Amino acid sequence: MNIFECLRESHELQRSLCSRLVRSKPEQGLRQDIFIALRTELAAHAAAEERYLYVPILMDDAGLVVSRHALSEHHEIDELCEALSVRDKTSTAWLEKAKKLSHEVRHHLKEEEQGFFQQAGKILSETQKKTLATKYQRELARMRKSLASAG
After folding, report:
1. What is the pLDDT of residue 58?
2. What is residue 151's predicted lDDT score, i.e. its pLDDT?
3. How far from 78 is each of 25, 69, 85, 133, 151, CA to CA, in Å?
4. How many helices (H) and strands (E) does the chain have?
5. Which homologous superfamily is 3-150 in?
């Protein structure tokens, strides 16, 4: 696998969790669990992706603008997750924020897959793509475990 194939796996999980979150009903009692799973996946993915894709791309002049833009979107997603991390997840206002998060995540993933990956693909060698995939997978697993245990 290369780095882009690995990233797409997490992207699909993020899309699925976003869909489940915005479709969840407060009376089902699943919102909290789905939100925690999504927040954990987003944070673990972002950390691993920033370390093992964005940083190498930032080091190349051709990748500077796309990397900085992607980093700013990660920051926006982090802020939305923070705003959703309230105890009461039953209000209409909370659901509207969850829908905004879902929209932002989907927008970011689409931009990455249809733009950033192509730019990065021109910068990285085939060997780098495979090496970064291994490092990304290891870091993603470590971060998922670390974030899950942090609660």
Report:
1. 96
2. 64
3. 23, 14, 11, 24, 16
4. 7, 0
5. nmb1532 protein domain like (1.20.120.520)
pLDDT digits (tens, 9 = 90+) for 46-81: 999 999 999 999 999 999 999 999 999 999 999 999
* Cα–Cα distance for residue pair 18/38, rounded to 1 Å: 7
- Which residue is it, tokens 């009461």? 88
Neighbours of 108 (CB within 10 A): 22
Q: How far apart are CA 94 and CA 31, in angstroms?
A: 11
Those residues whose C-beta lies under 8 Å from the C-beta of residue 143, and which sit 6 or more positions away, are 43, 44, 47, 48
- The separation between the first and the last C-alpha atoms of the chain, rounded to the nearest angstrom, is 31
Q: What CA–CA distance (Å, rounded) separates 144 from 139?
A: 8
What is the spatial distance between Cα 112 and Cα 74, in angstroms, rounded to a whole number? 11
